[in-house]
Amino acid sequence: MRIRGRTAAFIAVTGAMVLGVAATIGYSVGTGRDPSRTVTWWVPNWDSEIATELVAEFEAQNPDLSVEMVETTSDTMANKVSVALDSDNPPDVITELSSRTRTYIAKGALSDLSDMYGPDMPRSDFIPGALEAVTDGAATYAVPYRWDCVALIYNKDLFAAAGITEPPATWADLLADARKLTSGDVTATAWPMSGAAEDLVRRYLGFALSAGATIEHGVPRMDLASSQAALEIVGGSVAEGWASRSSLEVDNSEVRELFINGRIAMYLGGVFDVEQHLEAGINVGTALTPGPDGPGMQTADGWGYLVPEKAKNVSGARRLVEFLSRPETMARLTMTYPARISASGDPRFHDEYREPHYEQLAEHSVPPPNDPAWVGLNPFVYSTVQAVALGQTSPADGARAIQAEADRVLGPAG
């Protein structure tokens, strides 16, 4: 299967070097290429294998244009893109996280791509939430091509050994199953408490949304009850012992390793994780995220194509984006789910392992908060979840602290 090979490629490319703004500019000048005939595309290294094939096809169909690809990596991408967009020499096309788009829109750094949507690329063909994340007012500033979220991943063998026949569907099920699964060297779950703040905060926020919180115009609107409910699960689970104490020392990838090594029985992860578990021979299952009385909510995020306002070749950039956004092209490039519904028909997007993730995405998710003030609040929420996990504060006190800080930073409706 193509996706298995791409998974291996993704893991192997971790050492790829990110070229900065100056290096990109220097390369363009050094080659002496005509900017009107060259399109520079910043592409994440995990997409580079298929992107290289697609660029060759694009150039064959557009012999008047040459595409120069520059690889980016997740750990430095946000800073590189921000610096590039503030400069007078940005690349022509940037693959970037959708949830960061509104920050660039606020700075006036992006071209309006609204007129690219029409009969050949109808707005109705995009999965719910994907366009909302990159639209401000009447203008849409990106074309999403990938959209995904986390759902429940569990070890069927560990569940069977604990006498559990079905994955948890509600929070009551989750707690009951967690107590049965936590025995000896195995704990029920783990959380990424030592990685990027946004990874842990997203887990917290998913449970808060399930308990009644909302996201309005990119800003989370919580209350004490929803925040406390989320803290009781994400932080309280560690303090109570049914989530691994290793949570305080691991990031997303290390949570995945705990699962592969049989140290935890379930966790919230993406479809990319499932591919690795299958390759490792794990008897893995997937399910919707449990909620208070049924399926819970998650924030969905994705990736899209940006054309900077100061791009040197806007016309060529738009032609490349149009090509990359065709359903058949979009389906080839994404490892998770294409943003266009018409690109999601391939059976590989709907096998028994992926279908729960797709249902979570299509029916039980919302776009993530992307207001810059909320992004600035993430470290406070992150440290509060950790404090609950360490037993330094209670979920109720933690909820009050988060609410007070949200009121201060986001306004009294926060």
Q: How many structural domains are formed by the residues?
A: 2
Rg for CA atoms: 22 Å
User: Which spans have pLDDT < 50 for at least 5 consecutive residues?
Assistant: 1-31
Query: What is the approximate shape?
Result: globular
Quick check: average pLDDT? 89
Determine the N-to-C terminus distance.
46 Å
Per CATH, what is the topology of the largest domain? D-Maltodextrin-Binding Protein, domain 2
Total helical elements: 17
CATH class of the largest domain: Alpha Beta
Classification by helices and strands: alpha/beta
The CATH homologous superfamily of the largest domain: Periplasmic binding protein-like II
The number of E-state strands comes to 14
The proportion of residues in beta strands is: 5-15%
The largest β sheet comes out as: 5 strands, mixed
CATH architecture of the largest domain: 3-Layer(aba) Sandwich
Helix % is 40-55%
Largest sheet, spatial ordering of strands: 2-1-3-13-6
What are the SSEs and their pairings?
Blueprint: H1 2-12, H2 21-31, E1 38-44, H3 48-61, E2 66-72, H4 77-86, E3 93-97, H5 101-106, E4 135-136, E5 139-140, E6 143-148, E7 151-155, H6 156-161, H7 171-181, H8 197-210, E8 214-216, E9 219-221, H9 224-234, H10 236-240, H11 252-260, E10 266-269, H12 271-279, E11 284-287, E12 298-299, E13 301-306, H13 314-324, H14 327-333, H15 355-363, E14 365-366, H16 372-389, H17 395-410
Parallel strand pairs: 1-2, 1-3, 12-14
Antiparallel strand pairs: 3-13, 4-5, 6-13, 7-10, 7-11, 8-9
Helix pairs in contact: 8-9, 8-16, 9-17, 16-17
